[in-house]
């Protein structure tokens, strides 16, 4: 029988392969993971089998870090076992009940959406991830085991609070008694934010990723970092990191897309190439004249300048062919969330804050 795996991970994506799985392999103590495919997609069976190969799998780190080109291979050995919720439920329930200390997940933007099957009394493959998680935790509670620490990694604000609320809603629908709901409440549901560009998969498993990586976890009583690693940070609040990511990295991408559209540049233009021309010049000006002063109005100039320097290195990654046309998808919605929201946030602290270039991008996105 394989050695116990204190970490149970829902999701097999290349992002997780080059993010949490790599951190557990490199960190202290080295983690032992059971990876769970929750979709039941048979086309990914080859990936699932290769994740736990005895020799590990490769992650290629390629990009620019502190001005130097990085191009290196690392190997991930933390994945010890792989299962599918479609075919291995009994074994998965045993592992969550007997071995697990930590559960982590990255199930996609729609992973928390309710499904009709969520109301079924017994586990079903068609259930949403929160419903499957409820049934696994219910079995652990019935066995008299201790509560777990749960680390959702989906890109949802307050993802720990949101997942906890979904699981408790399902518990109520299932008629769970007060003992079970109380036990669920004593599990630790961590809010976290993750960031790393994972640009390509490797065959049959592995990934190509940039040097920059972050797993920021919001502190709360009783919560410890799941692994000690330079990319894993415990923080008092995620708001600062969320603002930096949304209003520098994401805003920068959206501003570049706006300038690219205005310039009528090539439809297959790449972000790093645009940095070297008029689009990059306009981006540099709006960052220096409007974005950094906006963060300064919120008392965050030092953090913003440091994050901007790292962001520009990420944009210039010579190994990443990041098409601006992909970034420009859903452009009006991105302007609202990344640029208009930034201006509202800044002007709440400094009414009348001048940002003519950003205001012009917002105005151009409003239908005539």
Automatic annotation (TrEMBL):
Key word NAD present: yes
UniProt protein name: Mannitol dehydrogenase family protein
PANTHER family linked: ALTRONATE OXIDOREDUCTASE-RELATED, MANNITOL-1-PHOSPHATE 5-DEHYDROGENASE
Occurrences of domain Mannitol dehydrogenase C-terminal (ranges): 241-345
Keywords, ordered alphabetically: NAD, Oxidoreductase
Superkingdom of origin organism: Bacteria
Segment forming the signal sequence: none
Domain named Mannitol dehydrogenase N-terminal: residues: 7-220
SUPFAM superfamilies xrefs: 6-phosphogluconate dehydrogenase C-terminal domain-like, NAD(P)-binding Rossmann-fold domains
Recorded GO MF terms: oxidoreductase activity
InterPro entries, alphabetized: 6-PGluconate_DH-like_C_sf (IPR008927), 6PGD_dom2 (IPR013328), Mannitol_DH_C (IPR013118), Mannitol_DH_N (IPR013131), NAD(P)-bd_dom_sf (IPR036291)
Pfam family, one: Mannitol_dh
């Amino acid at each position: 029988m394989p050695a116990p795996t204190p970490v149970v991970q829902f999701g097999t994506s290349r992002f997780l392969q080059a993010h949490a799985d790599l951190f557990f392999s490199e960190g202290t103590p080295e983690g032992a993971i059971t990876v769970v495919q929750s979709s039941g997609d048979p086309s990914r069976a080859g990936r699932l089998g290769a994740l736990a190969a005895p020799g590990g799998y490769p992650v290629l780190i390629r990009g620019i870090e502190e001005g130097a080109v990085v191009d290196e291979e690392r190997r991930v050995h933390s994945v010890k076992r792989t299962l599918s919720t479609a075919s291995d439920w009994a074994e998965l329930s045993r592992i969550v009940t007997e071995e697990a200390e930590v559960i982590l997940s990255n199930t996609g933007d729609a992973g928390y959406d309710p499904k009709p099957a969520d109301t079924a009394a017994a586990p079903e493959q068609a259930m949403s991830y929160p419903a499957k998680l409820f049934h696994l935790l219910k079995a652990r509670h019935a066995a008299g085991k201790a509560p777990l620490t749960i680390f959702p990694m989906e890109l949802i604000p307050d993802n720990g609070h949101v997942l906890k609320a979904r699981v408790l809603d399902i518990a109520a629908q299932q008629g769970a008694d007060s003992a079970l709901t109380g036990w669920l409440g004593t599990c630790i549901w961590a809010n976290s934010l993750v960031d790393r560009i994972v640009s390509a998969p490797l065959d049959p498993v592995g990934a190509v990723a940039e040097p920059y990586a972050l797993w920021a976890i919001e502190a709360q009583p009783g919560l410890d970092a799941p692994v000690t690693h330079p990319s894993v940070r415990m923080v008092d609040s995620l708001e600062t990191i969320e603002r930096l990511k949304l209003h520098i990295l994401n805003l920068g991408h959206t501003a570049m897309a706006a300038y690219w559209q205005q310039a009528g540049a090539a439809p297959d233009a790449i972000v790093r190439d645009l940095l070297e021309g008029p689009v990059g010049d306009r981006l540099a000006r709006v960052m220096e004249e409007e974005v950094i002063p906006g963060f300064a109005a919120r008392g965050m100039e030092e953090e913003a300048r440091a994050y901007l320097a790292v962001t520009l290195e990420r944009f210039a990654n010579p190994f990443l062919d990041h098409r601006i046309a992909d970034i420009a998808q859903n452009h009006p919605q991105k302007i609202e969330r990344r640029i208009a929201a930034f201006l509202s946030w800044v002007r709440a602290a400094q009414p009348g804050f001048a940002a003519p270039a950003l205001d012009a991008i917002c105005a151009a996105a409003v239908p005539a």
